[in-house]
Amino acid sequence: MLEGIWSCPAWATSLDLRARTRRPRGRIRVTVQARTSVKEDGRERTAQGLRDAPPPIIRIEPSRGWVALRLRELWEYRELLYFLIARDISVRYKQTALGAAWAVIQPFLTMVVFSVFFGHLAKMPSDGLPYPIFAYAGLVPWGLFANGLAQSSNSLVSNANLVKKVYFPRLVAPIAAVLGGVVDFLLAFVMLLGMMYFYGVPIGMRILFLPAFMLLALVVALGVGLWLSALNVQFRDVRYVVPFLIQLWLFSTPVAYPSTLLAERWRVLYGLNPMVSVVDGFRWALLGGRAASGPMVAASALAAVVVLVGGALYFRRMERTFADVV
């Protein structure tokens, strides 16, 4: 029995692998059974090599340890990514009476509740803006983050059959879950533009910075989602923790109140919550007003990158156990 482990080299493409459409980039274990010697006429002669042996057994295994993320492999599986995004969008509001209108109804009703309790009763300041549009402008980017986090944290469990039967980069599942929420964001954003027209808020050149804050929200959602999706495979308690985490995170983010309520000396520390700069930056890009300070935005961006890289590495480390546990 001869056995060895190699990273998939170029010569692996010459192997006759049935029904294989792509060359996997995981570790490959090749097991070859062969006779090493044969006695004939009192003399030993070497067997005729691997040609007389049974065909090799190819086992594809995920790489172990803290390894590179193989972004090129993700690009090769982009068609699967597109398919998962389209599937998530098509089934999200299937068999619902209002359909995609829920993408607008949810933040709108939340805005109404915030306007009554925080705007009317608590007299919360709103940076000189009408409180309804102030609150809704914070809920739109928050919804992009919250939906992405909720969907990505359960992405592996919801795709358990696919994970068990088909090889693909497992990172595809949470990435597709996060990107699928962009459609809901765009629908809610159209409603926000209508509110801006109603309240007479003009659109300025600051809107060009809007994609940067959207990207930051997606990075945070994906980073936290990678941690939670990997943990959710091992501990199903995570799905009960996620709604509470999102609710707690909402009230620690300046959605219903302005970040200016916090003393200036604490704002950089407050910026370690990446969603602070996302919400403040989103409001500034659309509605104007006071922009978030540079150090606070830098702290948010740094925290987002750390969460994303750490989540991706932890996800890759745990990846080899997903098919057995999920």
Describe the structure using short key phrases.
5 strands; 326 residues; three-stranded antiparallel β-sheet; disordered N terminus; 14 helices; 2 domains
Going by helix content, strand content and strand pairing, the class is mainly alpha
Q: Compute the number of structural domains.
A: 2
Query: Approximately how much beta-strand content do the residues carry?
Result: 5-15%
SS field, number of helical segments: 14
Largest sheet: 3 strands, antiparallel
Which word captures the global form? Answer: globular
The beta-strand count equals 5
Give the termini separation: 32 Å
Fraction of residues in helix? 55-70%
Pick out the low-confidence regions: 1-24, 28-44
Order of helices and strands: EEEEEHHHHHHHHHHHHHH
Report on the structure:
The protein has 2 domains: 2-8 and 25-61, no CATH class; 71-325, no CATH class. The chain is globular. The protein has helices spanning 71-76, 78-92, 102-121, 131-153, 155-158, 160-165, 172-179, 182-199, 210-234, 238-251, 267-270, 274-287, 294-318, 322-325; strands spanning 2-7, 27-32, 37-40, 43-46, 57-61. The chain starts with a strand and ends with a helix. With 326 residues, it is mostly helical. The longest helix is centred in the C-terminal third of the chain and has 25 residues, at 210-234. The strands form 2 sheets. It has a 3-stranded antiparallel β-sheet with strand order 1-2-5, with no helix packed on it. It has 14 helices and 5 strands.
